[in-house]
Structure formats: C-alpha cells, structure tokens
C-alpha cells in the first residue's frame, strides 16, 4: 500500500531523513520508535505534505501513485490521514462545522454523495459516543480550550469520519491518562481493517500495549536501523534505545 | 435538537463556499431605464431643484440651504485625519439627482416600472409581497428615489410608519421636523453637511409606544445611473418601549469611474426602546487593479435618549473603494446600552477607515465594541474608535475588542482607538490584536481534505463569528458568503 | 481626530531675544542647527489640532516667559543632593539649573573605552563626532520637544562606550533646579553611543526646589549591535514646573534597550520616547509609571518603529490619577513593510482615584507586514472594590488598604528595575509621592 524508498528530507536546511526505506502492506500496522530528533515527526509531516519539509531524494508511492506530487488536501482525499501530535487550534470555527466541511470535501472528491445536515449529525453522534465525547465539545471552536486528551479524541474522531486508507498516528499517546489512552486505543483498533494500514509513531511502549503492531521499526538519524516483531518494542522498553541499536551487546 | 443550528450553519458553509470562491462581484449589471437628471454640478439652484422635485415645505428648503451655505464655507476642507488616500473629488462633475421616469409616487407595485421590479429580483430582493422573504418589509431606493415599499399597509395597521423619507416629509411633517438633524446636525461634518443640502431619499421609520415591530424592516440601496452621487438620509424613531430591527443592503454597477455615496442615518431611541440596525455594505469595490468603485462617506449616529434604551449597530463592510464610516451611539439615558459589531474586509486596493464612537453621558451606561478587520491584497483597513466617558457617567462600562487579520505581505491594518475617561467609577477595557492566518491552521485544514481557499474562508468566518452571530439570520448567511467572495484570490 | 496643522502661538516662550542665537565660542554647525530649530518653532508650538498633541495643550505654557542662566551654576541645596543619593557606587554627573556642576559631580574612574564628558568638553575635544550625533536621532524638524531643545540648548553630557566596553557601575545623571525669582529654562542634551557589545546602565533624576521653571531634556541614545542600555528615570519635580522630555533611541541588530520611567512631579509634563528598531533580534522594553494628583498633567507619548523583522517590543504603562489630574498615554507601534516576525505588545492601565480626574489613552497599531504578532490593551477604572473589601475584611483600615493597593499597582513598574538599591530609591520616591497626594488616599 505504501512504499517509501531511500527518502531524504530537509527541514530548515538540515537533512533529517537520510535514506529511509519502508514498505507497509494493506491490513498491516507498523510502529516506528526512536529517540527525540530521530526524524519521527518529520516522516509524518513529509507523508502529509507540510510546507517546509523538502524532499531531496527518494520516492513515496501510495497504492502505486506518487504521493509526493500531491497537495495536502489531495493526499487527504486520496486516503492519507495524519493524526497530529499537537492538533492546531482554530478559534471561532465550531468543530462540527469543520468536520462536516472536511468529510464532504473528501466524499465529493471520492465521487460519494455529500452528507446533508441530518445524515451527518447521525453519523457523528454514533462515532462520538464510541469515543466518549460530549455533544458540547463539538460545538466548541476546533481544539480551542480542549484538554490534551480531548484533542487526541478529536483526532481519532476525525479519522473515523474521514475513513482513510492509510493512517499515520504521530505520538497519539502523548498527553493521555490511562483511561483516555484506553478509549483512544479502542478507537484506533476499531479502524483496523484488511484494506487499511497504519503507521504508529511513538516514543513509548505503553500505546503498543493496547494497539498491537505487526512490525516494529527503530528509527535513528533519519533511517530505519532495525525492524522486528512486537517483541522488539518490549526489548526497547527494557534496554533503552542504545541497547537495541544494531551492534549493541545483546 | 439543540444541535441543529450548528449543523444548519455547517451545512450552509460547506455547500455555499464551493460555489462562491469562483464568484466575482455579481451585482455589477446596469439597468437600462429612462431617468430624470438634475443638471450636472452643485449650486443653490440644484438644492432648490431637489427640494422642488419633492414638493418640500419651506422649512426644509431653508434647512437645506443653510446646510449648503455652511458646506460652501468649509471650502474644500474634507476631513484629512482618516487613513485614506484618494484623488480630490470634483463636486461639480457629478449629478445630484437621478430618478427613473415613472408616474410619481406609485401607489402600488402594479404601477412600478417592471424593469425596476426585475432589477430587484435580480439582486435577490423580490418586491412582490407574495414572493418576498417572509418577515422582511423592504423599501427599495434606486439612485435618488424610493421606488417601492412593501408591507406598508400591514405595518400601518399597527401604527408603524415605514416609508420613504420624501413621503414622510409630506405625510408626517411634525415627526420629521422634530427629529431630522437632531442627532446629526447639518454642520456635523463635511459629508453630513453635503448630505443635508442635497439628500434625495432614504427611509423613515417610526415605531409607536409599546410596539414591537413584527418583521425586519429593510432598505435596499441601489446606485444605477452613471456619474451620480447617492445621498440618502434615513431617520428611525423608536418611541417608548418599542423595538425594531432594521437591515440595509447596498450594491452598484461596475464602472471605471468612482462614484460618491454620502449618507446620513439618524436613530432615536426613547425610554426602554431598542433599535437594531444591520448593514451589509457591498457597493462595487473597484476592480483588481483599483479602478472604479464607490467612495462611501457615511455618518451614522444613534441617540439613546431614553432610560434603558438600546442601540445596536452591526455592519459587514465588504464593498466600496473607500469606506469612511463610524456608526456611533450617544448614551444619554441612564442605563442605556450601545453596541457596535463590525466586520470590515478589504482586498485588492480597497481602503477602509471605520469604527465607532461611544459617548457615555448617562449613569450606568454600557457599550460593547467588537471589530474584526481583514485585509488582503494591497488594501488597508483601519479601526478608529472613540470611547468617551463624561464626568456624569457614573458606573459606565465599556469593553472593546478589535482584531485584525492580515492576508498577504502588501496589505496594512491599523488600530487607532481613542479612550477618554472622566469618571473614576467607570470601567473601560480595550484589547486589540493583529495577526495573520497561521500556516499551522491552514495545513491542519488541508490535511483533512479541505482546499486552501476553503480553509481560508473557514478560518476567516471563524475569526468573524462573534459579529456574524449578531446579524439577523437572513443576513448572516449572505454576509458569510460575502466575506468569502471578497477575499477570493487573496491566498495562494 | 484633528487635521495636521500648526496654529501660531500668541507668544513664543523664548524669554530671550533673537540675539541669543549665536553663542560665544559655539561652533558654526551648532549655531546653524539652533537656527534651523528656531525656524521650525517660528510657526508656533503644536496646537491640540495636531494629532500627536491632541490631549496636551501647550498654549497656556506658550504665554509664559522664561529666562536662561548665563553664568556658572548656583550651588545646590544639600537636601536635594541627599535626596538623589543612591546607596550604591555610581558615576555621578550633576547639573544645577541646566549647567554642569563639576564640583558636585563625582564621575570617578571609568574603564578604558568609556568616556563621560560634558557637552562642552566633548565639543572641544571631539567636535566632529558630536556634530554627527547631535540631532541624528532627535529630529528637530518633526518633533517640537527636540526643536525646543535644539533652539535653546544649554549644555549636556556625552557618554560613549567603545566596542565591548562596559561599565559595572551605573551612570547617574542628576538634574537639579533651584528656587529662583525668575522662571528658568533648562535644555540639557544627553548624547549616548553604546558601541558594539557594550553595556550601560543610566539613571536619571530630575528634582527641584519649589517654583516655576521649564525643563526640556533631550537624550539621543544609539545602541549598537548586541549592546545593552538600561535607562531608569525618576521625574520628581516641583508642581509648578513644566517638563518636556524626549528620549530618541535607535537599536541595531541584537541590541537591547530597557527603560523604566517613574513620573511623579511637574504641573505639565510630557515624556516622549521615539524608538527606531533598525536591526533584527533587537529588543525594546518600556515601562512607565505615573502618580499624579492636584491639577497635574502627565503625558506619555511613545512611538516605536519596527523597521526590520524578528525584533520585539514590550511596553507597559501604569498611571494613578488623583485630584483633578489628567493622565495621557499615546503609544504607537509601527511595523514597516517586510518587518515580518515582529512581536510587539503594549498595555496601558490607569487607576482613577477621584472624581475630576481624567484618563486619555490612544494606543495605536500601524501594521504594514503580515507575519506579525501585535497586541495592545488599555483599561481604566477605580480600585477594585473586591480587593479593597478583601483587605478590609482582614482588619486593614480603608485608607491603608487603598494605599496598599495603589502602591502594589505602581510597584509592578518599579520592580522592572533590576538593581535593588535603585529600586529602593524609586520606591521611596513613589511612597513620598503617594503621601503627597494623600487627599483621596486618606
């Protein structure tokens, strides 16, 4: 589904990604772990198409198409979804308005019928309840005054509504207490399907206790230096990043 | 059920914005109609001509002449303090009266020239009552004259007078004489003085004691004739314990030369009365190169004369090449309330210098100002406001919030508040911010599939939300669309 | 909202004739600057129709006559010398009635690369340098206070720090006015050049015996790349005095200018700041406090121009108005085209203690660049009744509670002074000022 080959990317003139290779097939969940500054967030922004993240070499194919040629909104419409580490506050725009605008923009691009107010309300209510979000929250301006947990739930809600094919979850566990983590993880698990894939970016094992990846990668200095099964995450938790680097004493 | 309005708004948002971003000024057409013109230029004869055309009583002609002579004494001394640059206006190179030829004072819509009815239909303001927006009565002013007023009889049955000011001069001279110029005296300022001399038509509203006007009253101003200035005068009186909500809309054809619009609006609220005055100003703003457009020099002022009276101004200013406008409240009555909610959008070469004055005289008077300025292109938007607390305004309160949003590196936004307090028990608070749409916000929206232009419209509408909410629903939708259209092409 | 126009004043407050233009032993360039400034003033002092003078009317002042001291300075009263003594070492430069008083000064030893000289001394040893700096920042053609000072200028001080030089002790400029049978006028000029990477702390005290006089100090402060100037000013003059002051400042890249001004005295006072940010990453911080009563008028007019981006301004003014006093705050922040990433925030707060006081504020943002974060806030009102009640419910008498709250209000300004001893000096002055306006406080 997603094929990253020899990806090099610069931010503010500094090369952060230095030849990253990664292939993710439909139905799979991969996790990327790595120390601060290893390029985790850069990878997520490059995939979502943020300005200022300059790809200097390499390619990213999404279902055989050149992902890097697309604008951010075109990627979203094609089925890429980035759950932000720090969701942005947009004063004055009610969350519900934002959600409906986005959902209908994506549906329209996919040739699907746009929802009318009533249909959307029904859909949103169902998804919202599953995430334990209040009706009131969605009337408030987008992410403004939301707690860390509320922001992350809102990200997962958006993900559920936009029905993407490939999801990148950037440190979705940060800032969550145990209960919120469980709710968010359940939301993520509910979205796993044979025709979808996910890339979970995280610093810690704790999210992986709730969502079980098929493959775990260690990212260091902009490259994947080691890959393995879920047990690699546990090993990392026990030994720290230095301990799991190739060449480290076993 | 409480969720529905949010989603209704959301629905409108999504559906409309797509259609709108590709839309230009849609009111730029010209109606082909025979008109009567006064000779070009400005002199005492023109003032007499206008007064005679309207069969005015002697006192009104005298008042006009006094104003005209005073205006002459001002020389060419237009107010120079505003943050506006425009070439000198040649007051002799314009027509001061233009009216469609038709049987004078049509008694019913059947007598109105079908060409005019078609024009208003095209503007989205059907005048036939069966087709009209439910709950909105309209006075249609075309160039210098009112061509039709709807629902007049229905309102008259309740004692509410809603007619053109020319008709009011004839039918209700005592009311007009008592209040005309009582809020904005003829010598108030250069443009108000000019208006007092040559005003042609406008609306008149009187709501009797204890009456709540059951529908929105609305005037739709249309400039059609070339080289013609529009000088309308509106007078609204809300008698004790009454309420009225009044809406005003304006459009004009696209022309290469600039046209002058210098209106005066006077509001009077007596004890316990409330007037809500909303404007969606969409005069032709000129083209993308700054050619053409309306010069909009307007004096609007309301007097809260009575105890517990309230005047609320809401404006959405998207049109005009030049906007010079400060809808104000004189808070004389104890406990009276003044409000000013404003959105001013400038794009391309537009310039706006707009704001309000809140003059606190009575005890426990309060005022609230929310101003949202959005500048794009090479335009410039200035908020200029005065809050004055007189020594006797015990317990007065003011809160002002002025925010400016900049889109693009070549525009300008200025905030110039004047805050004068002479009473220690008064509390005055002013806050202002200037910022741009953040890249983070844009990227976030785009990463959810929303196109760049739509994301801008979404964020801008969010920025303006507090003001849009103050508008009557019918206008809020229109205003929201306008804001999006006005900013078209400003990003990317 | 008035048009820009100048109305001629009926009487020009010169008090000395045109023959005084050329002074003995004065270099030609100074005479010509003086003449140019006089030409500007010939049109009269700005009237309230001039936008920037809307709230401060000089017309009554313009009819007063003033005299200038032509010979050496009188001795200063001991009480004032003591009053201006700060309990820490400093390079002390004293002016009495507008004249440099070497006998009362104690400049002391300065490190190499630093010079502190009277204006006359500086002209005789470094004439061309002084000629270049004089009027470079304080523009007499556009600023009335600069023009008045240039036209009548009478001495001053020149402080120069070479690249990397720094003074560990502050320079303390003390301006003393003595009682006199004639109303005197003083127009000192302070020229400061803080070279690259240098650091200077400047303290200014303006004090006097009772009486009418006119003080008109102008400082021109050039802060070079990465240099820091801290500037702490106390204006505590007689209630009959007129004080028209200007600080014109320019900042190069990475430069810092921090000012704390406490204005207590003078019947009519205007304190202007004109700050030009010429280099990126420069930082400006202006704090102002004013504490006035009776019929005092205290005007604080600041203009900060961000000519380049990536620089920041922080400005906080706090006023306490008692009696029939009038406080004016006019703060303009200009962000010029291209000055992106400007971060500028301004706040004006006024506390009104009595009926008859008046607070006028005009905080202005003029923004010509889009990628900026700018804000301003202004508020005025009485003491918070809830705070007052809280204190009283804890057994504090009403007068004491009010005084405590007012002191706390103004203390926020004084706390910006980084030096404990100087802070104590300002706090003492504020306390005396508060007691002087005891009327509404007791």
What would you report as the Rg of chain A, rounded to the nearest angstrom? 18 Å
End-to-end C-alpha gap of chain A: 34 Å
Mean model confidence by pLDDT of chain C: 88
Which radius of gyration of chain C do the C-alpha atoms yield? Answer: 21 Å
Shape-level CATH architecture of chain A: 3-Layer(aba) Sandwich
Look at the structure and give the mean pLDDT of chain A: 88
Tell me the name of the CATH class of chain A.
Alpha Beta
Count of helix runs of chain A: 8
SS class of chain A: alpha/beta
List the helices and strands and how they pair.
The complex is a heterotrimer of chains A (250), B (492) and C (442).
Chain A: E1 2-11, E2 14-24, E3 29-33, H1 40-48, E4 53-62, E5 65-66, H2 72-78, E6 80-83, H3 95-109, H4 117-130, H5 135-139, H6 148-162, E7 166-170, H7 178-190, E8 197-202, E9 215-220, E10 223-228, H8 231-244
Parallel strand pairs in A: 3-8, 3-9, 6-7, 7-8
Antiparallel strand pairs in A: 1-2, 1-4, 4-5, 9-10
Helix pairs in contact in A: 6-7
Chain B: H1 4-20, E1 35-37, H2 44-53, H3 58-73, E2 98-100, H4 114-122, E3 136-142, E4 145-149, H5 152-156, E5 161-164, H6 165-171, H7 173-179, H8 190-198, E6 203-207, E7 216-222, E8 233-238, E9 243-251, E10 258-261, E11 264-269, E12 274-281, E13 293-304, E14 310-317, E15 322-325, E16 328-331, E17 337-346, E18 351-354, E19 357-360, E20 366-376, E21 380-389, E22 397-407, E23 412-421, E24 427-436, H9 439-446, H10 452-463, H11 465-468, H12 473-486
Parallel strand pairs in B: 3-7, 6-8, 7-9, 8-11, 9-12, 10-13, 11-13, 12-14, 13-15, 13-16, 14-17, 15-18, 16-19, 17-20, 18-21, 19-21, 20-22, 21-23, 22-24
Antiparallel strand pairs in B: 1-2, 3-4, 5-6
Helix pairs in contact in B: 1-12, 2-3, 3-8, 6-7, 9-10
Chain C: H1 28-41, H2 59-62, H3 78-83, E1 91-96, E2 99-100, E3 114-118, H4 119-133, H5 144-152, E4 156-161, E5 171-177, E6 184-186, E7 189-194, E8 199-208, E9 213-215, E10 218-223, E11 228-236, E12 242-251, E13 256-263, E14 268-277, E15 283-292, E16 297-306, E17 312-321, E18 326-335, E19 343-352, E20 358-367, E21 373-381, H6 385-393, H7 398-414, H8 420-436, H9 438-441
Parallel strand pairs in C: 1-5, 4-7, 5-8, 6-9, 7-10, 8-11, 9-12, 10-12, 11-13, 12-14, 13-15, 14-16, 15-17, 16-18, 17-19, 18-20, 19-21
Antiparallel strand pairs in C: 1-2, 3-4
Helix pairs in contact in C: 1-5, 6-7, 7-8
